[in-house]
Design goal:
The structure is a single chain. The chain is an alpha+beta fold. The protein is built from 14 helices and 25 strands. A 5-stranded parallel β-sheet has the order 8-7-6-12-25. β3 and β4 form a beta hairpin. α1 runs parallel beside α12 and α4 packs antiparallel against α8 (375-394). The longest helix has 21 residues, at 537-557. The protein is globular, with a radius of gyration of 23 Å.
Length: 591
């Protein structure tokens, strides 16, 4: 099919004709290629999910406005993004740990973290490492289920967005059901992802097409793109990615120079079975492990406890010290039954996870939106993680010659039979190119020490809707053809990485030229350098709470995003009220 009308174009797609309709409505500029839905669901607020921000947005919107219908999609069956399916269960608090203070956290984040008993993993990278399977079962799913106005659509990929001019009319998703639930997670994501986006029944899944629409014919839904891949922005062609060059506020970006992604896994130490001693074996030579190379017992144990998700002996303060983060030397204990999350050496620096514009256009033309992911790189990412597991297993000889036969992947913790996390840990994604007033949240001058507006704080925007605090860590690609070394990245990324606690403005949650579309998490209207600071756990959750609260007021009052901005005092009052519990003033007491 090829069709064009006004400013709206339909690209050729190969698909099942019986499931596809083409609508060209003169004068309304409503032009789309859409799957005929199996079911239409009415929603006042739609949260296109997959990220930590999406979970926060869905909880906020549903609980702050019980009279509104909130629809929440999730591509896996573990909502929470990096908290859960993304395999990063070690909360990244920022400098001074200001964001670890209860009064500086959104209420919902405080409640979630409060449900975790201390630091279950006794890890050394954070004051809080936990078992993600426990968090999903014990807090996330029960919390979602307690709001009768919230409809959660797990295993749902976003494949279409219908628009009329600058307004989103509806969202199309493909929801899959595993034919063999016990083997659902037996296949790595690189082999499954395109199937997730296809409406056709497959060997592994039955499918149904969902159309999420407004609450009635006259009212459009408010849509939040808080996906991990920027699905909505990508489909609409409103996204940017990579890093801005030559300066942070440049309008041009190198779409291939992004952040290295990681696929995590979890290792478990089984009880001793008195195996025979193993002869010394050389480390694997398949990959260059660089600074993460393990060369002695101390380095092996350090890697084991770095992101340990579950300490098997929580009662024993010697085995699992409660202050492992502050006194890491006291946490150097390997226990039978420990579960160690591993992502220290398995970041892939030889390929970028996201396809560029040309490749995305080709993907759409050849069969429709499928996430815009480079499946070759995703497979490489999985291969590197498996190699890192083998490397950690073999180098365990430094600690003990008996450990190798007792180390195994903890499939219960990952929720998969193949042992890798359900979703990669993405450090960047597609993001909104501009918000209203052409706004982009930048790092320099607002989050760092170049800002002189306050000695200890970042710049406080007049439309501030959330607080954040984070260390800035960039993970550049090093041998990708487009980014052969770190020097391919602009110098400003490395010039100033000292952050202050900062504010997220409402304009960063908006999309230029769209009235009812918001963004949250890594999809915000921000630069690559700003994303380095906002992508951490507390910042991403905060942006999700803000987007969920703004969406409520837009739906209630039939506001556009510009209307919300012009009524920012009312927005701030609502967010800071007991209805939402979003702090907007920062306590600077260290903990």
């Amino acid at each position: 099919i090829n069709a064009e009308y006004g400013d709206c174009q339909i690209q050729r797609m190969s698909c099942r004709w019986s499931r596809v309709v083409c609508i060209v409505v003169a004068r309304l500029a409503l032009c789309t290629l859409a799957l005929q839905p199996d079911e239409s669901i009415k929603c006042s607020v739609i949260v296109a999910g997959g990220s930590m921000a999406s979970l926060a947005a869905a909880i906020t919107a549903a609980e702050a406005a019980p009279e509104l219908s909130v629809c929440f999609t999730e591509p896996t069956d573990w909502p929470g993004g990096q908290l859960t399916a993304g395999g990063d269960p070690a909360v990244d608090f920022g400098p001074g740990h200001y964001d670890a203070r209860p009064e500086n956290m959104p209420r919902s984040l405080r409640q979630m973290l409060g449900s975790i008993p201390g630091n279950p993993g006794a890890c050394t990278i954070s004051t809080m490492c936990y078992n993600p399977a426990w968090l999903v079962d014990s807090w996330i799913m029960p919390r979602l289920s307690r709001s009768p106005n919230l409809q959660v659509f797990v295993r749902t990929a976003i494949v279409g967005v219908q628009r009329s001019g600058g307004s989103v009319v509806s969202l199309t998703g493909v929801q899959r059901s595993p034919k063999n639930p016990s083997h659902e997670w037996s296949v790595p994501l690189s082999r499954d992802l395109e199937d997730w986006y296809s409406p056709d029944e497959s060997e592994r899944f039955t499918k149904r097409v969902l159309s999420l629409i407004g609450p009635d014919d006259a009212v459009r839904p408010v849509l939040i793109d808080a996906t991990e891949l920027g699905d909505v922005l990508g489909i609409l062609g409103m996204s940017s990615q990579g890093v801005e060059v030559p300066s942070e506020l440049s309008d041009t970006s190198n779409w291939r120079c992004g952040q290295a992604a990681t696929t995590s896994f979890y290792m478990q130490l089984a009880p001793a079975s008195r195996p025979p001693p193993l002869p010394p074996q050389p480390p694997l030579l398949d990959w260059d492990w660089g600074s993460n190379k393990i060369q002695n017992a101390s380095e092996w144990v350090s890697s084991w406890v770095w992101r340990r998700a579950q300490c098997a002996d929580p009662v024993n303060a010697t085995a699992c010290p409660p202050d492992a983060f502050w006194n890491p030397s006291e946490a150097q204990v390997v226990n039978v039954g420990d579960v160690s999350q591993q992502d220290k050496g398995n970041a892939l620096t030889t390929g970028y996870f996201l396809l560029d514009r040309t490749a995305v256009s080709n993907q759409i033309a050849q069969g429709g939106w499928k996430g815009g992911v480079n499946l070759t790189v995703l497979h490489m990412l999985e291969s590197r993680s498996r190699s890192w597991f083998e490397y950690v297993t073999k180098t365990s000889r430094y600690q003990s010659p008996y450990l190798r036969n007792r180390l195994a992947l903890s499939t219960h913790t990952s929720g998969t039979l193949h042992g890798l996390s359900k979703w990669p840990y993405l450090r960047d994604s597609r993001r909104c190119s501009r918000g209203i007033e052409s706004f982009r949240l930048a790092f320099n001058g607002t989050m760092n020490y170049q800002n002189e507006s306050a000695p200890l704080l970042g710049y406080r925007f007049h439309d501030a809707v959330g607080l954040a605090n984070a260390f800035v860590h960039s993970y550049p690609l090093m041998t990708d053809p487009e980014c052969p070394t770190a020097t391919a990245y602009p110098a400003y990324l490395w010039a100033d990485n000292q952050t202050k606690p900062f504010w997220i403005p409402l304009r960063a949650l908006t999309v230029q030229n769209f009235t009812n579309l918001l963004v949250a998490g890594k999809t915000m209207a921000q630069t690559a350098h700003a994303n380095d600071a906002t992508r951490k756990h507390t910042g991403e959750w905060t942006s999700g709470v803000a987007a969920g609260g703004v969406a409520v007021l837009m739906a209630r009052n039939q506001w556009s995003s510009t209307d919300a901005y012009h009524n920012v005092a009312a927005v701030q009052g609502f967010l800071n009220s007991t209805h939402v519990g979003q702090p907007l003033d920062l306590s600077l007491i260290h903990i």
